[in-house]
Write the structure tokens for this entry.
Amino acid sequence: MTVTGAASARFSPQGSTVPPPSGDIMVRTTHAGKRWAEEPPLRWQAAGATDESAIRLDPGRTFQETLGFGASLTDAACYMINQLSPAAREQLLHELFHPSEMGFSVSRLCLGSSDYATKAYSYDDGDPDPGLERFSIDHDREYILPILLQCRKVNPDLFLLGSPWSPPGWMKANDSMLGGSMRKKHYASYAQYFVKFLQAYAAAGVPVDAVTTQNEVDTDQDCRMPACLWGQEYEIEFISRHLGPQFGRNNLGTKIWILDHNYNLWGRAICTLDEPGVAKYVDGVAWHGYAGKHDMMTRVHDAHPNKHMYWTEGGPDYTNPAYLTDWTRWSATFAGILRNWARCIIGWNFALDEQGRPNIGPFTCGGIVTINSTTREVVRSGMYWALAHYSRVIKRGARRFESEGSLEKVSHVAFTNPDGTNAVVLTNAGADRTARLRLAQRAVDVALPADSVTSLTWR
């Protein structure tokens, strides 16, 4: 399948008794033979007295503000990007992060290794070292920090989230980074471990904006990979008595997000935020979508409306036959996430090879892009193309507004950007059809090809 050419598209509103939509509107669709291709002009018309089947847009009813879109710069992802020639690496990072291209503006880092790394490591391996005399980020200086610095050069507004998969093994009951749980006697040292990480990264030119206390708090991953169980009462004690106070004493403005796990733990999230000692330090909740439903985030938002929701992990499987073409699956997923208060979408590994490597597994996750281990060819996944329809038209600070209406196999979500432009993303997982959008007394009919994602913007 090839990329089609692009042509400019406009909406031309005709005489209205209310201020009509105005300015350029670009219609970009992804379907058989097309990737992010601009479509012919559309025209707003006077709406009918009743449009029962229309998707109704109401910019006056607003919801959460957007932080951005992106994916994770794991050890594995940085390693693969670093395998490219300098020119190819620069070209790929420009494509991913520059505001005029994909415009990715959030990314997730690992404090030490995750399951997607060349090896298991922490910043203080070896015998017990409560004073952290051996603490060092030297492992990251080879290719992780250089890639991060290059990303920040392309997009200085890149927001970085740091997540640990495991404390150093000596802090844990099983003396290993693989599985197990934390020893309480090392809470103070572990809080200082976070501080040292943040200070070392800032000194290296890569300030980190937020951290989670643990990737996936409720599993030890059967000891197959770096992981650490954190019972709810453990997470509460660690944040309220150690991590939060340490950030305060060291004048760190880094945000703290809890949970970093699946929707089905929504009850735990509410109870954790109910604790005053946690609530005063925590900005919000990080979510994964491997279990549960999107609307479980809304339950937490409704219980704690002053806390933010963030979607921090999910990605393709390279063994899936639809790895290159499942854009509607991912776009519909993103619409559901955004309609339930999430401020960001962070995919899993930005880049892996054609067999999902390197990883500590074997595991079968695929990259947002694949970099061939032999030819270095870059191939873009279906998730990449789905993300394009969001990251290119919904900017940081955009405010979601109401879009109402139910069409079979059609998902939709709408935003107003800080510059006053509006954006709607329509996902059609069914056969060819037409969707009518209604805005006040105006309406426009949008052709939605089968298996397509369409983005519209207007002022």
